[in-house]
């Protein structure tokens, strides 16, 4: 049976030679999993990996859709949360995939947010030295960022995402209906990554978001457009630099400051989630660029105004519970980015949509900036 | 400093685009590790993974050579044996690599046989989504087979090598001096894989081995020639089919029967080691091909005569302790190779150096053949 797009559905192609794949974006895709997989996969067997938060809502409809298309499926439900990205959970996932006799033409499905996608993609990447893999992301963050591009992995005691592989999915199904059940805070956190694509190199998209963000938050076709534009932006970068030798680093715009803030709040999601860290980090990146005389302070103000309007935190002071001194934040940055001869690599900007990789940023300037922004 | 080859040293290039690498074959290479790495690597930090059998002989000379070249090294010594190819040992290896702050331009070194190479290569393949990796194989089997080609991995309760990645090394140092310390049985087991390359598609090489095997066993330039020819044969196949979509399956000549025999003897190395299983398996593959009227029985007799002359087992009856009935051997084959509609894929041959992939071999014919060769 051929895949049939509904009128509101969008398709983005990730061009990676013989590893190219489609991202489908639209309503009702989870209930169409069987149809979409049936149209693309030779095998007739899948293993679905999900978590305790997602399973009650979406596992049954997915399993029913697979059964209806004559696809045999087993499922494994993991505990939710960042701690699941560990060897402790990777091992039973690999066992479940092998136990289900998933072979060359069969597939492994990740049904969940970034944690489930990263863990499951890693398992798919190492079982039989690489098995077919389908992403069904259920958070906005996963739909516009982590489900696209093939980065998979788990955390190590030495740091986040330090163990993993590049393993591209064979298909991404971004069911936009699931976004209606996200909390406003979760949706906003994902929106920070949407805005990021505008700030990296798509000023017109950022302008469109400033005009249309309410429609994006409300759902419907503007939201599908925003997700498709984000996926297209990420797909373009990934196609140009799959293994992050250069350009792909731009996708980390706002993330160096953001990661430091996540570390400083000990990854406590009550205080700060990833997208919120990125929102504050993007404002800081603009302000730091202005301080280095690379960009106008007007751009920093414009970015902050928009992120604030949608309800995102934009300043370190917005984080509840206080932060350690600037020196400690700087230590976290130095752990994330290697400091070489007092210089570090940073994604800076010349203005909205004009980001670039700077590899000679003086660590002392970053520290002084942090001290100004976060006086003790 | 440039790498300088001694007159007796050979170099084989594995051509894989931007992942191409050299295999150096010759005496004294372990004591030259620092020189060879220093000539090729930007970084100045390595982690050496080895085992308790290899460490007492070769770890100190390697560490001294690295220190002399100004390369900082840490080492981790694991228990020897197949059980080490497990998540239980993979996790501390990953930790050791990260703990040593091995980064982009640094490297991970596997100093040991196939187990250490497979495990360490897998760890290098997943730390930071792929780290530089150097193979220093210390068995003949590892020098002519497992250290070349990028297959890495660990075992699963569901089967051997089911978890892993393709991760090519950046350099292979095959120090032929280490072969002098192998037991005759270990050397012969590795020799079975050398002979395999002749049987796959190099009849002149097989003929050369028939004439020169005593010199190969004695050491010196004939042995270096045989290893270089084997590495070149494997490099050619890997360059043509890195991820085993077709041609690379030929490298499994003799292995389907061999794996079944290894499983039937419960991987008890007192009874049968891998190379011995391959030796018997290659004779069986020739005999089965003759039975299918694909090849002359003379070729089977010729192959058996040579392997027997060098001291390898060539018949199922040569395995001490007896074997389960033919039906059980057939079950092991069916687990290894998927049976589809009563047919399975097998590497057969039309004669010495004329192997090919047959994907429609009737399972019933294999069973009848096994019953004849191994009557209860």
UniProtKB/TrEMBL annotation, chains A, B:
Residues 190-339 form the 3-dehydroquinate synthase C-terminal domain. The keyword ATP-binding does not apply. Pfam families: DHQ_synthase, DHQS_C. GO terms for molecular function: 3-dehydroquinate synthase activity; metal ion binding; nucleotide binding. It comes from the Bacteria. Zn(2+) binds at residues 193, 255, 274. SUPFAM superfamilies: Dehydroquinate synthase-like. GO terms for biological process: amino acid biosynthetic process; aromatic amino acid family biosynthetic process; chorismate biosynthetic process. Binds 1 divalent metal cation per subunit. Can use either Co(2+) or Zn(2+). NAD(+) binds at residues 114-118, 138-139, 151, 160. Belongs to the sugar phosphate cyclases superfamily. Dehydroquinate synthase family. Catalyzes the conversion of 3-deoxy-D-arabino-heptulosonate 7-phosphate (DAHP) to dehydroquinate (DHQ). This is 3-dehydroquinate synthase.
């Amino acid at each position: 049976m051929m895949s049939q797009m509904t009128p509101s559905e969008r398709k983005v192609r990730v061009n990676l030679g013989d590893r190219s794949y489609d991202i489908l974006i639209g309503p009702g895709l989870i209930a169409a999993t069987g149809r979409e997989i049936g149209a693309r996969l030779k095998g007739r067997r899948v293993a679905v990996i999900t978590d305790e938060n997602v399973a009650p809502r979406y596992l049954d409809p997915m399993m029913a859709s697979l059964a209806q298309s004559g696809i045999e499926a087993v499922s494994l439900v993991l505990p939710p949360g960042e701690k699941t990205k560990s060897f402790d959970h990777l091992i039973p996932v690999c066992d479940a995939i092998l136990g289900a006799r998933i072979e060359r033409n069969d597939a492994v499905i990740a049904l969940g947010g970034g944690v489930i996608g990263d863990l499951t993609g890693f398992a798919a990447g190492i079982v039989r030295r690489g098995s077919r893999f389908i992403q069904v992301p259920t958070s906005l963050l996963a739909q516009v960022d982590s489900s696209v591009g093939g980065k998979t992995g788990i955390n190590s005691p030495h740091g986040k995402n330090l163990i993993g592989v590049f393993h591209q999915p064979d298909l991404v199904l971004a069911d936009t209906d699931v976004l209606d059940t996200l909390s406003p805070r979760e949706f906003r956190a994902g929106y920070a990554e949407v805005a990021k694509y505008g700030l990296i190199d798509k000023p017109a998209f950022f302008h469109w978001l400033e005009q249309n963000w309410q429609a994006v938050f409300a759902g419907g076709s503007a939201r599908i457009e925003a997700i498709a534009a984000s996926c297209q932006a990420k797909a373009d970068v990934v196609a140009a630099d799959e293994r992050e030798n250069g350009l792909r680093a731009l996708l980390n715009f706002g993330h160096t400051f953001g990661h430091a803030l996540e570390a400083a709040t000990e990854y406590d999601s009550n205080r700060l989630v990833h997208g919120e860290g990125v929102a504050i980090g993007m404002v800081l990146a603009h302000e730091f660029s202005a301080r280095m005389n690379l960009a106008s302070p007007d751009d920093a103000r414009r970015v902050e105004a928009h992120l604030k309007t949608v309800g995102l935190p934009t300043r370190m002071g917005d984080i509840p519970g206080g932060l350690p001194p600037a020196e400690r934040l700087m230590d976290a940055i130095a752990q994330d980015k290697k400091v070489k001869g007092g210089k570090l690599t940073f994604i800076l900007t010349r203005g909205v949509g004009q980001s670039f990789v700077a590899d000679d940023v003086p660590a002392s300037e970053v520290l002084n900036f942090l001290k100004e922004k976060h006086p003790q």
